[in-house]
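Usage example:
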Amino acid sequence: MQREGSAFSGLGVVVLKELSDHLTSVRMRVLEWLVVLVALAALYGAIQQIKDTTAEDPFLFLRLFTTSRDPLPSFVSFLSFLVPLMAIGLGFDTVNSEHNRRTLSRILSQPIYRDALLFGKFLAGLITLSISLVTLWLLVVGLGLLLIGIPPGAEEIARSFVFLLVTIIYAGVWLALALLFSILFRSAATAALVTLGLWLFITFIWPVLAGAVAQAIIPPDPRYTALGLQTPGTAELEQILARLSPSTLYAEVVVALLDPTTRALGPIYLSQLQGAVLGAPLPLGASVLIAWPQIVAMIASALLLFVVGYVIFQRQEVRA
Amino acid sequence: MSQDSVIQANGLTKTYGSATAVDHISFEVGRGEIFGLLGPNGAGKTTTILMLLGLTDISAGEVSVLGFNPAREPLSVKRRVGYMPDTVGFYDGLTAADNLRYTARLIGFRVLEREKRIAEALDRVGLADVAEKRVGTFSRGMRQRLGLAEILMKGAQIAILDEPTSGLDPQATAELLGMIRGFKAEGVSVLLSSHLLERVQSVCDRVALFSSGKIALMGRVADLGREVLGGGYVVDIEADGAGLAERLALIPGVSGVEKTGIGKLRLHADRDVRPEAAAEVVALQGRLKFLGVQEPSLEAIYTRYFEAKKPEQAVQEGARHAA
Ligand SMILES: Nc1ncnc2c1ncn2[C@@H]1O[C@H](COP(=O)(O)OP(=O)(O)OP(=O)(O)O)[C@@H](O)[C@H]1O
Ligand SMILES: [Mg+2]
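Running the assembly step on the lines above writes:
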């Protein structure tokens, strides 16, 4: 059926309203402080560690993101579980709050489509997350400059910038998930709980489970086990399963981007090492290429989650 | 009529799975008319309204709002129709004016026009003083009025109000009904729903009485009264004068005179006989203290109609059981 007018008329208005709601909300302020404090702690640990190691490192600046010092995890590991928290914190009541405030039917009786409302809300969430992440990135880069005292090279800046973009995509995946559950569950508390539960499962339990499931499907070959090696088939399946989790994808992309010596993600085949000087850094383009499937998979899963939510929202009754 | 009707519904139907919420209803709302969708809870009023606005899919039938099809041209319909849902909600953290600003932006008004319209609308519903107060602090009545302000601001040609008086005290109800009459005075057509028959009877030009998804009765309240209550006007008169009762009984059209108190009489007639009754009192040189005609009450019409229906249903059901 041909629809009248643009599906996105009113989109800008919705984005601006939601954005100003987010930016002035107490929830956002709390989340931001949480992230900043945690990031500072991780950064402090990293800088201490970097100062202790005197070895020459051409990518000293990138080490800021990946170095950890006990007991604190690295900045990147902090991000990989704080970003989902922020996205879920912003998105879990996107649609159900409109139902519960009984504003939905009033807003939808204005000359806009549901498309504009839903997409506007998603965009506003993503922009809010981007603002926080860019701020955080600037903070880290600035502090790194001040504290290490060695200006980063163009390559390092470029790599950390791509890392920023990927982190925003990663945030988008979780935001789309939170949005989906905010459509599915009328109660915001239920939506938050289910989304957080799923996040815990995907991030902490699934990687362990993936190994177990892979071993159950393809039992390890005793010949490899005897040598203390993983059976290639089992390892491959485990990796495929683990990659169903966006957290795994993100971790892999981050490794490729922030460690220029990464030649492959997952099991390395001999063909990939032919003619390569071990330990020699790759150019940025090559690193991005290595991580490209993972990046595309993240974008695709964000889109898929959004589309599922969109279809459900289109069919939903407006009354509470 | 169809020339000047703003809403036309024909065989409108909504089913949820196997349940039928709205069952082949047809009605028209004329330009500048106040039309009431009345009926008990769950009768299908809200569902009908949502279909008119294109907010829920139509299972069968046709509907045209200002000449547009709400399913295919929802934006054209929604641009011209103002809607106040039952228990209308606003963003509690925003001020009254900001809530309207958001709507005005969604509609697409430019800054200057927006501000002018908002100020006017808030003034009209008496919320100008609290325009910059957060809606979270508003009472139920103020929210309802803000809902009306939104429709005014929109400059809608049709106002669709779902249960506009529910939860309001008598004074707030009277004020709100006054504002609804104001819509009519400006040529805005009004479609309102309510399950409180008495409250809205006075403002509606025509009503449709719903009963489990169907329109049981439709028309002007007075006509329905004559139709269902067996016709007849009831005129109460309080006057003195010897032999008044006998004289009144002779007025053409009067079918009975009843004594209801000292000096109080009740006439049953097939038309409004107030002028003749007054003339009789004057002719007897009596003093006329009260003369009034009883409006047929919707409540009475509704109750009577369904009381009359019930035995039939019982018979039908009995027949079904027997079979
Ligand atoms: N999403 C739904 N799924 C199934 N049935 C529904 C749904 N929404 C409404 N109904 C049913 O449709 C019927 C009509 O409901 P509707 O809300 O239109 O009644 P109403 O006349 O507005 O009542 P009220 O005075 O309580 O507002 C009811 O029996 C209700 O149970
Ligand atoms: Mg209703």
